[in-house]
Amino acid sequence: MTDGTAFVLPAKRVRGDTLRERLTETVYERVLPARYLRRGPDGDVVETPEGLFERVAAAVADAERAMVPTPRDGSGGSTSR
């Protein structure tokens, strides 16, 4: 920072059995619902934070599968349509 004070990041949460335990209350209760959780036609949140992480993980896995060479033909996923 320009005034000579150090900028200190909050401690990273790496312990906890549940997603709620690993995220801050602000992120779990405010940020995810306001920005990232799916909403229904009426505007109400229809997805849980856990559902969000499952949805994103599935999308990443699908993209990775599309790029991994298949044993049959040795080619990777198609980049053109």
TrEMBL record:
Residues 30-65 form the Ribonucleotide reductase large subunit N-terminal domain. It comes from Halorarum salinum. This is Ribonucleotide reductase large subunit N-terminal domain-containing protein. One of its GO terms (molecular function) is ATP binding. One of its GO terms (biological process) is deoxyribonucleotide biosynthetic process. InterPro entries: RNR_lsu_N (IPR013509). It holds the Pfam family Ribonuc_red_lgN.
